[in-house]
UniProtKB/TrEMBL annotation:
One of its GO terms (cellular component) is ATP-binding cassette (ABC) transporter complex, substrate-binding subunit-containing. Keywords: ATP-binding, Cell membrane, Membrane, Nucleotide-binding, Transport. Residues 4-241 form the ABC transporter domain. One of its GO terms (molecular function) is ABC-type ferric iron transporter activity. This is ABC transporter ATP-binding protein. The keyword Cell membrane applies.
C-alpha cells in the first residue's frame, strides 16, 4: 500500500495547447493517503479517467509529478507501479475459466500455487463466483464477467492501490447495491488504498470516507460526504451533491442583508463580512431542506409564488418563484398550493454566499 501524491499535475491531450484553461487537467495538487477509501466524483468529461490513468501510469502527465510514498514515479511504466485497475467494461480472458482468470495476476507475479489457490477461493467466495468457478468466462453473463474483472483487481493483496473506473456501470441495478457494499467491506478488511471513479453521488457516498469532487479539470473540493453537503466550497458541489441541489440566487449586499431583487434576506454577520471582502459575481446559496415554507407572512419571510409541488413520499418538493428566480424547498408537509403565494424564510446559519462560483470566507 502507498500514499500517492500528485504535485502540480496538469495534462493536455493536444501537445500544442498553450493555455491551462484548455487542459483536461489543470494543475492538480492532491494526496491519496495510505489505506484511504476515496471516491473521485464529477460529471462526464471533467477529467476523472485522465487522473486515474496518470496515477496508474497509463498516461504520463504534460506537467507535474506523481509520487508513491515520496518516490517520483512519473516516468515509471504502469506494470512496475504495482497498481490494480478495474475498468468500466470486463477485462478478462474469455477462453479461461473463472478460476484461471482470477489466478492470472498472481501467476504473472510468480506467487506460490498454494497461495494462489487460497486467494482465488477467497475472492470467488467474496464475489459469489464459487458456483461458476470452473466455467469458461465466455459463457457467463455480463454481470458475472464484470465480477471476474473486479476479482482480478482485488486478488493481489500486495498492491500500492486499487483504482476502479466506474466498475459497476454494466452491472444490473439490483446487484449494484450488493457489490457497492461488498467493496466497502473489502476495503474495511484490507485497508488497501482505493480510488473509485463515479459520476453517481450515491455510489460515491456509499463507498468512500473521502470524496474528491472534480469539475472542468479541477479538484474543487475534498471532504467527507457530510462536509460536502453542509459546507460546499464551490457552486458545483452545492448543485451536484444533494437532491435537489442547492439553490443559487443572484444578490447584492447591504449591511448584513442580501438583496435578491426586492427581497431582503438576513445573513449572519460573518457571512456578510466575508461577502463584503469578496470580489466577483455574488450569489446566495441555500439547501432546499434548510428553507422554511409558510403559508402566511412571518417575520423575515420573503413572499414567493408557488409554481409546483412534487410529492416524493417522505417529503414534498416545492418550486417557487422569487422575482423571476427559481427557489426550491424540500419540506415534510405542504401547506402551500400551486398558484398561491407563500413566504420563505432563509435561516441565516444555513445561508451562504458565493462569489464567482466559490464560497466566500
Ligand atoms: P467520463 O465520466 O465521461 O468517463 P471523465 O471525467 O473520466 O469522463 P476524461 O475521460 O478524463 O473525463 O476526459 C477529460 C477531457 O479530456 C474530456 O474533454 C475528454 O474529451 C478529453 N479526452 C479524454 N481522453 C482523450 C484522448 N485520448 N484524446 C483527446 N482528448 C481526450
Amino acid at each position: 500500500m502507498a500514499r500517492i501524491d500528485l504535485e502540480e499535475v496538469a495534462h493536455s491531450y493536444a501537445p500544442r495547447t498553450q493555455s491551462l484553461q484548455d487542459y483536461a487537467l489543470k494543475r492538480i495538487h492532491i494526496t491519496w493517503e495510505d489505506g484511504g477509501a476515496y471516491a473521485l466524483l464529477g460529471p462526464s468529461g471533467c477529467g476523472k479517467t485522465t487522473m486515474l490513468n496518470i496515477i496508474s501510469g497509463l498516461l504520463v502527465p504534460s506537467q507535474g509529478k506523481v509520487l508513491y510514498d515520496g518516490r517520483d514515479v512519473t516516468a515509471m511504466a504502469p506494470e512496475r507501479r504495482n497498481i490494480a485497475q478495474v475498468f468500466q467494461f470486463p477485462v478478462l480472458y474469455d477462453t479461461m475459466t473463472v478460476a484461471e482468470n482470477l489466478a492470472f495476476p498472481l501467476r504473472n507475479r510468480g506467487v506460490a500455487p498454494d497461495r494462489i489457490r487460497h486467494r482465488v477461493k477467497e475472492v470467488a467466495d467474496m464475489l459469489d463466483l464459487t458456483g461458476v468457478i470452473n466455467k469458461k468466462a465466455a459463457g457467463l453473463s455480463a454481470d458475472a464477467k464484470q465480477k471476474i474483472s473486479l476479482g482480478r483487481g482485488l486478488v493481489r493483496d500486495d498492491v500500492a492501490a486499487i483504482l476502479f473506473d466506474e466498475p459497476l456501470t454494466v452491472i444490473d441495478p439490483h446487484l449494484k447495491w450488493q457489490l457497492r457494499r461488498k467493496l466497502k467491506e473489502i476495503h474495511e478488511r484490507s485497508r488497501t488504498t482505493m480510488v473509485y471513479v463515479t459520476h453517481d453521488q450515491v455510489e460515491a457516498m456509499t463507498f468512500a470516507d473521502t470524496i474528491v469532487v472534480m469539475y472542468e479539470g479541477e479538484v474543487v473540493q475534498v471532504g467527507t460526504p457530510e462536509a460536502l453537503y453542509e459546507q460546499p466550497r464551490h457552486k458545483f458541489v452545492g448543485y451536484f451533491i444533494g437532491s435537489p441541489g442547492m439553490n443559487f440566487l443572484a444578490c447584492r449586499l447591504e449591511g448584513d442583508t442580501a438583496h435578491v431583487n426586492g427581497a431582503v434576506i438576513p445573513l449572519d454577520s460573518e457571512t456578510a463580512e466575508a461577502g463584503r471582502r469578496a470580489r466577483g459575481k455574488l450569489e446566495l446559496g441555500i439547501r432546499p431542506m434548510h428553507l422554511e415554507v409558510h403559508s402566511r407572512q412571518v417575520s423575515g419571510g420573503v413572499p414567493v409564488a408557488v409554481r409546483l409541488i412534487e410529492d416524493q413520499g417522505d417529503a414534498k418538493i416545492v418550486t417557487t418563484a422569487l422575482d423571476g428566480q427559481t427557489v426550491v424547498a424540500r419540506i415534510p408537509e405542504t401547506h402551500p398550493v400551486p398558484g398561491e403565494k407563500a413566504w420563505l424564510r432563509f435561516p441565516p446559519q444555513w445561508t451562504r454566499l458565493f462569489a464567482d462560483e466559490r464560497l466566500v470566507g
